[in-house]
Amino acid sequence: KAGVTQTPRYLIKTRGQQVTLSCSPISGHRSVSWYQQTPGQGLQFLFEYFSETQRNKGNFPGRFSGRQFSNSRSEMNVSTLELGDSALYLCASRLTATTDTQYFGPGTRLTVL
Amino acid sequence: AQSVTQPDIHITVSEGASLELRCNYSYGATPYLFWYVQSPGQGLQLLLKYFSGDTLVQGIKGFEAEFKRSQSSFNLRKPSVHWSDAAEYFCAVGAFLSNFGNEKLTFGTGTRLTIIP
Question: Is 90 exceeded by the pLDDT of residue B92?
């Protein structure tokens, strides 16, 4: 079974632009979570989607948003990019939204210049 | 709110030596605990998890971890490390956020493991 895939793997943007990252969960998994990883803040939870609905949200500004499609694929969008948004963005999927193991993708490395 | 502390930022061990990575958590109820490993430029791979039951948990790649409620710890161990174990290791605690049962992971800051020949 294929793992979690994320596209693109690398992205370079400039301040003020917006960006969309994509995540395809493991087949059959219906829950997708997003995390931001930076050297300074470590791994931080962004949000989780289940059945096309955002179930939980971390402490990030409204510039960070996401959505989930009927096939469980998810996208996250960051508008008005700031230098501090440079990070590795990790997507994780799990079978349901109850207590289950999360499986992570390889991440998208976003660099904001 | 839950939290995880990994007191060792960087550990260096010789190949073939034993390894113990420390993890302390803070959570008001029975925690769900995980260890993940991340190689450079890669995502996180699950090594092992503890939900309930036997407090000694076996994982992949020869790793094990022991849950000690009295010490709020979930330390990761391996009897003999291999050069391929060089990576960053993250301890995480899962917490329910609502009756729906959703869970978010709170991660420690990670421990970077270096293996010397």
Answer: yes
Between B52 and A89, name the one with better pLDDT: A89
How much of chain B is helix, strand and coil, in % rounded to 5? 10, 55, 40
Alpha-carbon torsion, ordered B31, B32, B33, B36, to 10 deg: -150
| SS3 at position A51 | coil
Which of B51 and A28 is assigned the larger pLDDT?
A28
Residue type, A58: G
CA of A82 vs chain B CAs: smallest distance (Å): 22
Q: Tell me how far apart the alpha carbons of residues A22 and B50 are, in angstroms, rounded to a whole number.
A: 30
Compute the nearest-CA separation of B44 from chain A (Å). 6
Give the chain A residue whose CA is nearest to the CA of B3.
A44
SS3 content of chain A, % helix, strand, coil (to 5): 5, 55, 45
